[in-house]
Structure formats: C-alpha cells, structure tokens
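Hi R.,

Here's the chain you asked about this morning:
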Amino acid sequence: MPKPLIALVGRPNVGKSTFFNRLIGEPRAVVDDTPGTTRDRQFGESEWNGVAFDVVDTGGIEIASREPNAKPLSVDSADFIPEIRAQAELAITEADAVIFLTDAASGPTAADHEVADILRKHQKMADGQPRPPVFLAVNKGDNPARRDEAYGFYELGMGDPFPISAMHGIGTGDLLDAVIAALPKQEAVEEDTSVKVAIVGRPNVGKSSLLNRLLGEERAIVSPIPGTTRDAIDTQLEYEGMAVTLIDTAGIRRRGHISVGVEKYSVLRTLRAIDRADVVLLLIDAVEGITAQDAHIAGMVIDKNRSVVVVVNKWDAVEKDTHTMNIFTDTVRQGLHFLDYVPILFISAKTGQRTDQVLPTALRVQEERLVRIPTSELNQIVREAMDKHMPSFKSGRRLKILYASQVDTDPPTFLFHVNSPELVHFTYRRFLENQIRERYSFLGTPLRLSFRGRSDKG
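And here is the predicted structure, written out as tokens:
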C-alpha cells in the first residue's frame, strides 16, 4: 500500500523548502555519495507519530520556462500567477493532504488569495466527493508577536491558521498532528501478489501506445481495476502463467484544469506509480534522445529502490546504420550513468517492433530482485574483492570487513560488519557492489549496502 502524499503549496519565499527539509530530516539540494546522482528533486519521505508519508514541495516543480537573464519576478507579479495556480491545482488533484504555506512577516498577499481561491474551487470533485483537506500554515512565526500575526490570515477563508516556524520547528508538531489525523484511513485489502509494472516517462514518449500494444498482444486480460493514484486505471493480465498488473501513468491531462507546462513536470502522479511498482518501465523518446527530465524521473526510481527497464520507444523513426543502436546505448548509459546495471530495449510501440520483449524482460528483472546470495558465498566474494583491491587508509586507519550477509530481498539488501563505518568511502562501496554484480548481476535492480560498526547495536 503506497504511503499518503502531502503536498506543500504556496507562493515563493514563504519557506516551503525550509519546511520540506524539516519534514524529511535533511537538507535537500540532494548530494548523494554516488557519483552522478546529485539531484534537486523536491520530494522525500517523512514520518510523524508512527505514520509514514511522502512529501513534495511543489515549489520545486519548475512550471513556466524563463528566458535567459530574465529579471526575477516579484511574489505578486501577475506573470507568476499561472505558475502558482498550476502548482496548487496539481497538488489538490494528486495529494492526500495539502499544506498551504504563507508568510507571517508579509501578511496575506494577493498571491496568497489567489492560491486560496484555487484550493477552495477545486476542493469538490465533479461527483461531489471532497478533495484532500487543506491546512493553512503561517510560517516565520519566530516570536510571539509574529505568531499573533497569524490571526490576520483568517481573511483567506481557509479555516484556522497554524502559526509555525519551519526554521526552528515551533508549532510544526500541532500542524502535523492535525494533518495526520485527517489522512484517509488505510483499509485492509486482500494482498495483491501480482507483479506490478509501472509505465513512466515524459509526456508524449508513447506510454499509452505501449500500454495498448501490450494489452493488444496479450489475450488473457483479467480486468481493469481502479488504481490507488486518482483516475489511473490498473490493468491486470496473465502472462505465461504469472499475474501482472500494468500501472498506467499516461493520463496526466485531466479535465482541462492543469496547464500543459505542468504536465511536463508532473512528478506527483509518477511518484505514486513508482511507489506502487515492483518494476518500472522508463520510456525514452528515441527521436529526442535523453533529456534532463528523463534523468529526473530515473532518479525518482532510484530514490524508491525500484527495479527498472529503460525502453527506448519510436525506434522506427530513427535513421539507422549498423552502429546506431550501440551509439544510442552509450548515450543512454552516459545520460543515466547511475543506472548502468539496467537493461535497455529498443522498440516501436507504433509498429510493435520488439515490444514482445518488454514483459519478459520486466519479469526477469523482478526475478533478479528476489535473488538471495548464500552467506558463505557472499563472504567469499567479499574476501576476493579485498584481495583484489584493499581499501585505502583514511586518517591512518584502514577499513576492515569482518563479515557480510544478505539481510533482505526486494530490493536486495546487504549488511557489512566493519571495524568503522566512517572508513567506507563511496568509491569502495561502489567497488563492492560491482564485485557482487560480477557474480550475481541483479539485472535492473538496485542494491542496498549498509555498514555497521563493531559497537553498533540493533
């Protein structure tokens, strides 16, 4: 069952990113210790009172393009209103709860009123069912006088304001208590043992065409069923005796409310689909090649520890010679260099070229995700790795690996007992992963390596 999603909405400079960082417990510009994975995606995981949830800062979703060297817009500029509107609409259509952040120092602004109007307008679905609840947070209440300013925000008509300081954590507990209490209760459902395959990618890369092609080729369709992501339709089918659920994320254009620009950066629906999936099919447009948004979506998959197959679609539209596929493969590997272990398929959903390889590859990747290495063999791999390349010294000390074991699958997770985790350099972590993959490829599947010191408990 996917975790609830809480979206942070508001005009610029009200402290959404500061509050986001407080919720996820880390500064997020994100700097990963694996080369090539420094990313700035504004979503993460959090927990409050035992309830885990995903959180997204919609201010981190770039919506309108800006001309080079353009002057920054003021917070109440009319030119900025379309961006604010798109972010608010996206949040309220996709999230389970919305936190609307404002600034106590400036008081209610025209842009705040615009956001409030949007949220109120869209809090009723067409069928009369309520939209996710909205909580008004008045940020930068760093002292009693500032917190008193929160009462002026009643004029927004968004209910009781919660005075908070995202910087110092003042009042955030009361806000989160209210948010968690209002989240939809997770109902017990019969366990779904099917392999869940999500089709994700930028708009117009052919997600719907691939879905239709796969369903057209497979005759044993069980039924279309409502998905957890709003307005998504999951399709269950049987492939060579195995139950498969295809999760479609193609339907981003909804009811004419969300602008074309925000479709390009609609991470919320993609995030929910990835969260529910076992294997992700990342579609790339062969004509356009690798883009920054492709890498952005790939990073979302990595953050969720999901397995992935890169599917290069529209291959029929590319002029080719005997070297084209190898050159494009190298380009994909370079553009997604933190996904060097994934299979790459070149297909045409339009003509059906090689689409018969998609589901078999996805199911093979899922099998790899469940592989477990015997402890004795894993330690043999580690010993041989250390014989091949000893860790370098750090502060006069050298890393020693005392013992290793695979503690979980789905995804494969390895625990290394070492003399000191601080001595593990990211390059040696990567070396160990590569040595494991030389023996067990774990095709398309991320590996989690954890290092525990002698005195660590648990």
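One quick note: The longest strand covers residues 401-408.

Cheers,
M.
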